[in-house]
Amino acid sequence: MTHGHQLRLYNSLGRRVQDFVPSAEPAGMYSCGPTVYAFPHLGNMRAYVFADTVRRALRWKAIRVRHVVNITDVGHAVADTDTGEDKLEVAAARERRSVREIAEFYTRAFFDDIRALNILPADEYPRASAYVPQMIDFAATLEQKGYTYRLPSGLYFDTAQDPRYGELAQLDPEGQREAARLEQVPGRRRKTDFALWRAEQPGQRRVMRWDSPWGWGAPGWHLECSVMSIALLGPHFDIHTGGVDHRELHHVNEIAQSEAYLGDGLPWVRFWLHNEFLQLGAAKMAKSAGGAPRLADLTEAGYHPMAFRLFLLGGHYRSQLDFTTEAMDAAQATLRRLVARVQPLRPLPEADTLGAATAAAATAAAATGAARALDLMDAAIAADLSTPKILAVLQDALRDPAIAPDGLRVLAAAADALLGLSLGSLDPADLEHRRSVTELAPEELHAIEHLVAERTQARKERDWTRADQIRAELDQRGVQLTDTPEGPVWRLR
Ligand SMILES: [Zn+2]
Fold it and tell me: Is the dihedral of CA 295, 300, 303, 304 positive or negative?
């Protein structure tokens, strides 16, 4: 039995590809999660599909993992600054709902997208608001150790106390915050110093407020990730993931405060993994509320969530991706071809780990061609998660007459385990491109609605002949009509 290729991951700490061997099992893994004040957009989802790829690679290598993803429902100020209003509170005022309602609504929206994208659930999804007493204790410890100073605006971490501050960002601390943040905080000693506690200002009263040794207020944004990861994974753990935008500031500050708090001289986390951006600029997708497109906009426009997943995995996580309608069309077409080819091979065997896939390949008679392709897939995932390569290997294999159906079954199952595209279960009919209602000309939309209303009237009058005629006409226009207790519902084919 082969042990396969050594898993190697690009560590932002030191900027190099390194062998990944867990320091303990289960390996601890923490991913910075959503701030639940708005719908997650497609760019946000790239970070979770990326973390899911890490999870699948570890499972493939039979490395058990304990995964924590936080839900930020307090403490994240507008524009990521240290002062100013909280994102949740601004959203609550805008939508005339309570902060709790806002958090619950958008947390549910996040989980809907996670499920639709076939992302493996984390072991824990701690909410920041449930950990505020621990955050206060953490900040108090830092104060006792002399890492902080007080200002009227709150308690600040003194980055001058940390000789290794900013190592992850590989920027000189003086230049670090220049580009992104131009916030002036009166009395702050260095511009890299950041708030551990944001004190309420005279005349201000936050909606979410806690009493603390530094007065009423709310925790700083960076604090929650250190506190919750240490609480749930122990003082040191193996992997921390997030978008590359976190590499220069949020993660730098997480490291500074955690290593000051632990004070054992060890690196807090061994592997820092960051995914690149998804560029949304050029896309002309139907946009629900004028913001960046989200998954629901894609499905409304006729794309399957798995097509978006395939689009993401078609690029390497450390490369920027441009989101375009053409790229989505191509991804959906690729997925349709893959599912059509895999469908006759169902059911697929269980092959979530390399060991299981290798055993299945060994028992699959005449699957000699599959062994080589399986090795290529293993090499690809081991080489810093090369998902585009896995897709290419699968596509080549499905065209290779030398590989028997039993071998193809193993390879499709292996690809599903690593890429999570659900090739073994997707219904090809769900992948037919549906025209979106938003693509209809106004006259056509009007005509359809008129016909639907006319048919409802005809049915009321028990004029079945007329009702059937109208249904046939709607059918010709590509309208699929379903009668429900609440009345007819229609969509385009
Ligand atoms: Zn974080």
Answer: positive
